[in-house]
Amino acid sequence: MNVLSRDQVRNIDRLAIERYGIPGVVLMENAGRNASAVILEQLRELSVPPEKSRVAILCGGGNNGGDGYVIARHLHNAGCVVMLYAASDPAKLSGDAAINYAIIKQMNLPLRRITTAAEFNAVFPELDDAHLLVDALLGTGFRGDVRPDLAAIITYCNQLQAKGKRVVAIDVPSGLDCDTGAPSNATIVADVTVTFVAAKRGFLEDSAKEFLGTVIVADIGAPKELIGVVQFKEGSDILNAQAMLKQALPSRISVADAMILMQIMLNYEVLFPNNRSAKGCVPGDYFFSREDWGHVFSPFVDNIDPIELKTSYGVRERFLPTDVEQATKEWKWRLALGGFKINLIK
């Protein structure tokens, strides 16, 4: 089973968009459509046909809420009676989530705001009456404590779940840290968690088990190869990259050379020789961030703090040679002699 961290999931989204040209709204559409298929299956398990079902979808203010709006559209098209509840002001949504909110607004799907205690208390009977609750409040980006208004919503949903109401969490139960598996001050107890791309690292922790229910992995349409790519970005892989670079680098390089090499790694696809664990590919910014490359190159550079090397733009400004283009050509040539292949990607 593939398991990904919060940052690895973000990198898959970014790579799918930047490298493969898949619009973010398409990824969200795929996620929501596939999650809606799982929800329809849950209704069948409850012996409730779509045309007789009532599904309450609680949407937050980020992309998790955007997923909820996509799910609402597909469930509506399948014949379900969909009830939407916005736990944050939909007018403040941005990007792909805003696009999908605009669609359900044009469709005139029923939506009620539950941003205050009074608004939330008023919808208790509707939530009680639903056959199934969909938690699309907080996603993989959540960490820390749930704010009080959302905590009240989560607490009430858990009370309904304890009485037998089916709860489906989207990507991660709201309030659960997807990296650590630690619950917060208020965490959804789900019967089913529909998570995207791969299970999350925190799901393996004992502390997460009681909140997840059955975990179902749903596809978002990102190329499957990206999972292996982002999994390369671990501490052992930093050491692996360093070992490969020793074939082309002297034991010590100047800060200026390090800056040029980092720019090459961040602007070109660099194929490392015999690097089977990474499928032969270690592109710069698309797989390693500037910070990662700082870690890779720091052992080769004297007289500079590795933290400064990997984070400071001032370092680049001070140490980049005047003729950056010529220095880049020279280092690309030296890397080629070391068995590396370099392809322009941006």
Question: What's the helix and strand layout?
Answer:
Layout: E1 3-4, H1 6-18, H2 24-45, E2 54-59, H3 63-77, E3 81-86, H4 95-106, E4 111-113, H5 117-122, H6 124-129, E5 132-136, H7 148-162, E6 166-170, E7 192-196, E8 199-200, H8 206-212, E9 214-218, H9 225-231, H10 235-245, H11 255-267, E10 268-271, H12 284-287, H13 290-297, H14 306-311, H15 313-319, H16 324-337, E11 341-344
Parallel strand pairs: 1-8, 2-3, 2-5, 3-4, 5-6, 6-7, 7-9
Antiparallel strand pairs: 10-11
Integer-rounded radius of gyration? 24 Å
Multimerization state = single chain
Question: Which range does the strand content fall in?
Answer: 5-15%
What do the pLDDT scores average to? Answer: 85
Topology, number of strands: 11
Low-confidence runs (pLDDT<50, min 5 residues)? 275-286
Helix count, DSSP H or I runs of 4 or more residues: 16
Shape: elongated
CA-CA gap between termini? 33 Å
| Sheet with the most strands, sense and barrel status | 7 strands, parallel
Structural class: alpha/beta
State the order of secondary-structure elements, H for helix, E for strand. Answer: EHHEHEHEHHEHEEEHEHHHEHHHHHE
